[in-house]
Amino acid sequence: MTLRMPRWLPPLALLGLAASCGEGGASRPRNVLLITMDTTRADHLGAYGQVRFETPALDALASEGVVFEQCSSAAATTLSSHASLMTGAYPLRHGVVRNGFSVHPSNRTLAEALSDAGFRCAAFVASSALVSATGMNQGFGVYDERLDLPASPGGNDQAQRRAGSVTDAVLAHVDEQEAAGAEGGLFLFAHYFDPHAPYGAPGSGDVGGFGDIESAVGAQQQRVLGEGPGQQAVIGGGLPAALAGPTGAVPSPADERLAALYGAEVEYMDGEIGRLLAGLASRGVLEETLVVITADHGETFWEQGNFWNHGLWVGETDVHVPLIVRGPGAARGARVSTPVSGVDVAPTILDAVGLAPGPGDDPGRGRSLLPALSGAEMPRRAVFSEATQPGPRLEGAEGLPWAGAAKPQAVRLGPWKLVKAPYLGVRQLFDLASDPGERRDLLADPVLTPTSRDALEDLERAHAVWVGAAAPRPSAYDPDQAEALRSLGYGGDR
After folding, report:
1. pLDDT tens, residue by residue, 412-445
2. What was the pLDDT predicted at 478?
3. Can you list the domains of the chain with their CATH numbers?
4. Alpha carbon distance 348, 71 (integer Å)
5. What is the pLDDT of residue 1?
6. Peptide bond before residue 56 is cis, with ω within 30 degrees of 0
7. Which of 90, 55, 96 is nearest to 477 (CA)?
8. Rounded Cα gap, residues 278 and 267, in angstroms
9. C-alpha neighbours within 13 Å on the C-beta side of residue 449
10. pLDDT per residue over 112-144, tens digit each?
C-alpha cells in the first residue's frame, strides 16, 4: 500500500528554481531553510536507491543539489540528534543524553549565531520531544510548537503535528513577514515528524499502533531468544547480548505491514515538503535560499536485534540518514561519498552565509562541508554515533566522561565501522563497502586480515581521541516531560 504525491504538485525542476551556484562561482544565500525529517532512513528515498516508495519532491531536490551518500546521525533519538544538528557538537559536548533532557543555555546554537547576524529565525516543530521546555528554542524569535494531534489512549497516535500543518505554518509565517515588510534574511527550521511510530499516513485507513509494534517485536525476539520480553522491556533495561547487532531475521507478514505503513508516511511527508518548496518558490523566496534537508535518525525494522526501534543500537538502519543541500554555491546533481555527520550541518550553514564555522579539527564538533558543495574533495575524517537507550541505570555511574559513555557507540572511518557497546561487552567490526547491511562481524573471524587489522587500529585510535574530547555541558532530565515521552513510545525511558 502506498500513497502518491498529489498530481497537482509539479516536479521542482519544472518550477525554474535554478539558483546561482557552482559553475559561476559561489554566492551567499539570503535565506536558510533547514528541514529535518524525523525517523527517516536514507534507504527510503529514491535519491538513495529506494524503489518501492515514491519520493519525487526530495528526489528532484537532490538532482538540483548535492547528495551526501554516507551521513551518520550523531545520536539515535530526536532531541539528542537535533541538539547536535543545532550546536554542531556531539552529545559528549552539548550534554543532552536523550529525550527529556535539556539544552543548556551555555550551548551556542545555530539559531543564536544567525539571529546575532541579523537573520529572522523561526522554528516549526512537530513533536513534544522538541518543545521549548527542552531549550531547543534558543535563538528563535518564533518557536511554533503547536501540536494538533493528541496522544490516543489506544496507542494509535501520539502528540504530534502532521506534515500538512507544518507546511501551512511555515508558508503563513513567510506571508506574515512579507506583509510586515520585515528586513533581513530568513532562517526557517521545519521539523516533519510523520514517519515516527505509530505508522499511519492520513487517508491510509490503517494504522500500525504501539500494540502492533509490541507484538511484532515480541515475535522476532521469541525467534532469537526463545522468549519475547517486548520492546518496552529492552528500552528500559537494555538489549540482551544475543540481540546486539544483526540477527538474520526475515520479515513476518506483521513486519511487512508495518514497513508498508512506514513507507506511506514517508511518501506523505515527501508530498508536503514538495508543497513547502513549491510555495516558497512561488513567493520568490526559494531562489536565494540554501536548503538543507536531513533526518535526526532512522528506524530499525527486523534487520537488527533492536526490532522496530531507534535509540538502542547504532546499526546503519538507525544512524544512516539522508543529507541533501541545494542552493547558492551548491553544485547541481553532485554526490559525495565521504562519510559525514549531522554535527557538520551547523558549521556548513554558518560557513555558507559568511559566518565563522569554528575550528574543523575538534573531534567533539563538526566541520564545514562547504568545500564539498562546490565539488572539492573532503579529507577523510572519523564520524561518530551513539545510542541513547537504555536510560537511567547506565547514566549515573562514577567516572563516566559523559552520561552516554556506557551505551552503544559507533565510529566510522571511510568504509570501516567499529561498534562498541560497553554495557554489553560487545565489540563489532564491519566493512560497509562489501557488507552495507552489517551482516558479517569481522571480529567473529578467528584471524583478522592485515587490512582489517589496520582498519581496527585506526578506528580504535579515533574512538579514543573522541572519548578524550568529552566535556559535556550541564543537562538535566525534566520529569514534567515524562507523559509526553510515553506518548511517543518511550514508556520505559525514565
Report:
1. 999 999 999 999 999 999 999 999 999 999 999 9
2. 80
3. 27-368+379-487 (3.40.720.10)
4. 14
5. 29
6. no
7. 96
8. 16
9. 8
10. 999 999 999 999 999 999 999 999 999 999 999
Residue given cell 530499525 in the structure block: 300
| Helix, strand, coil shares, percent, the chain, to 5 | 35, 15, 50
Whole-number CA gyration radius for the chain: 21
What's the mean pLDDT when you consider all of the chain?
90
Q: Is the pLDDT of residue 8 over 70?
A: no
Length of the chain: 494
- Return the number of other C-beta atoms located less than 10 Å from residue 2's C-beta: 14
- pLDDT > 90: percent of the chain: 82
Give the whole-angstrom CA distance, residue 357 versus residue 174: 27
Cell of 285: 523566496
- What is residue 384's predicted lDDT score, i.e. its pLDDT? 98
Instruction: Tell me whether strands 320-321 and 66-68 are parallel, antiparallel or unpaired.
Output: unpaired
Give mean pLDDT, residues 275-296: 97
The tens digit of pLDDT for each residue in 80-104 reads 999 999 999 999 999 999 999 999 9
Cα separations in angstroms, 70 against 58, 67, 398: 17, 9, 35
* pLDDT value at residue 26: 56
> What CA dihedral angle connects 128, 265, 52 and 230, to 10 degrees?
60
Residues 465 and 488: their CA atoms lie apart, in Å, by 35
Report how far residue 56's alpha carbon sits from residue 45's, in angstroms, rounded to the nearest whole number.
9
User: What's the confidence (pLDDT) of residue 484?
Assistant: 61
* Residue 86 falls in which region: left (phi positive, over 0), alpha (psi -120 to 50) or beta: alpha
Residues 163 and 269: beta-carbon distance below 8 Å: yes
Alpha-carbon distance 235 to 492, whole Å? 6
Using CA of residue 321, residue 200, residue 134, residue 77, what is the dihedral sign?
Answer: negative
Cα–Cα distance for residue pair 37/270, rounded to 1 Å: 9
Contact 281, 287 (CB under 8 A): yes
Among 472, 400, 44, 423, smallest CA distance to 241 is for 423
C-beta of residue 413 within 8 angstroms of C-beta of residue 339: yes
Phi, psi of 290 (to 5 degrees): -85, 120
CA distances from 388 to 79, 266, 362, 463, 487 (A): 10, 24, 23, 18, 18
Place of cell 528554481: 17
